[in-house]
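Readers of this paper often ask what the protein records in our data store actually look like. Such a record has a labelled line for the sequence and another for the backbone structure tokens. Nothing more is needed to write down the fold, since each code stands for a local backbone conformation. The record that follows is passed on verbatim for readers who wish to inspect the format.
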Amino acid sequence: MTRSTPATGSQGQGLFRRLIVAAALVLASTGIVLAVVELILRAVYLPEPWTTRNFTVDPVNRLVNYFPIQYHPVLGYTGRADYRGANMTQGRMGVRLNHWLPADAPSPPLPSGGILAVGDSFTYGSEVADAESWPAQLETMLGVPVVNAGAGGYGIDQAVLRAEQLIDIVKPSLIVVSFIPNCVGRNEYEINVGKAKPYFDIVDGKLVLRNVPVPTYRPAVAHVGLARAVFGYSYAVTWAAERLGWSDLWLVNRQEVRRAHTKGRDVGCLLWPRMAERLAGRGVSVIALAQYAGIHINGHDNLRAAAGVEHVLDCARKAGFTVVDSYGELRRRYQSDESRFWNLWVRRPNDTKWHTGHMSAQGNRVTAELLAEAIRRDMPNLLAR
């Protein structure tokens, strides 16, 4: 019995090695088959077969890219240049035009010497036609060209960077930097609604630009879950989930927001002296414009106070800029006639007065009138062109 023990141990070790080799061969062959399937499916179904995106967030990407935008390494994104839509017309450098153009019409040169408007979707004029945005209506009121460089989802940081990008091209006499209370919080984000963006940090009391060049969006593991974070980059897995009817379980529909810090209000304040420094000696005036959703006015949402809008506007005043805060006029209209007040915002069929969208053509006209009044009062030289 003692003589057979070594042989038995040797046989056991040999069997174990053979099992390991067999398992490795099975795994290797399975991996090769899966890789081949992945390559075939990508070649057949994807216009860019070598893309490395996480496919589980495709619903978010489709929603974000529904809007006519294009990647920009410093701004994150801008409007898509020379875009023609049903009621959205964009010209050179992705600015929104103040009138509709047919698909075959070339984009006109950007006018210079007038007004440059930057901000988020409230500046862009989302949900209204080209001529109904407040920049378009302001241009008509004053007879001065207005370049609408707004883009949906921008923070104040991106709006200021957009102004810096265009100032030497447009050479404006006036820059209007518009923001809603949400824009103050957006100063804190490195990811906003599924799109990577630049942001400013504060180091020793000074602004430091981060996340530039803006990277490709990669969803966080905490947002999509470990399985999607690992296997989401396989198109074959997503393809199989779609064919099996499991898309609702596999795909992610929530837009990710990722904060880099919580200094949005302080960043907002420091952006004004940054602008003042860059505009020194150019003879360019600046208006800081605060806009609002209806729920910010009727008291249902206290974001105006929570975001510190008045504090950010006070910083703009200290930088020597004119301030137009539409809150007072909108609040007056709410108290005067609440039913008519809600017509200042676009209403969807399922909306209640607590859920309003962007400003309607009528609401944008109120904004344009407030700006026109401030310009006529404080900047008459702009009108003597």
